[in-house]
Amino acid sequence: MLVGDACKTFTPQTETASADSSIEDLIRAVARDRGTRYLHIVDGEGKLLGIVGVRELMRVVGSQHINRDIRVALAFARAQTARDIMREAISVRTDDTVEKALEVAVKNWLDDLPVTDEAGRVVGYLDCFEILTNLEK
Fold first, then answer.
1. What's the pLDDT at 68?
2. Within 10 Å of residue 90's Cβ, how many Cβ atoms?
């Protein structure tokens, strides 16, 4: 089965944000849907630039809070943007196989994979359960 078919079947919607989004905006975005573990950072054309996960958000606030007052930690976090904390975007394309998605996920220790079209625009994502249930289809 191709990733594009699995993506259409399961989760065609994905949370995105711009590289200039504030940390506060990112926290609000993940708080809207408790199931959101990652935000896909995209440019103005929807092309994938990077990923910000809940872990990165916890680190940016928590690393400052360990040695400081929480108000100082939050002020530090507010001064940063998605661009400052995003990590490399590892993704699969709609025309890749689900088997390739499994390989990429395992190699990079990822639970979810952004799915992009041939132009690099985010069109959805596959989570680990969707990958596993579509392997032999």
1. 65
2. 16
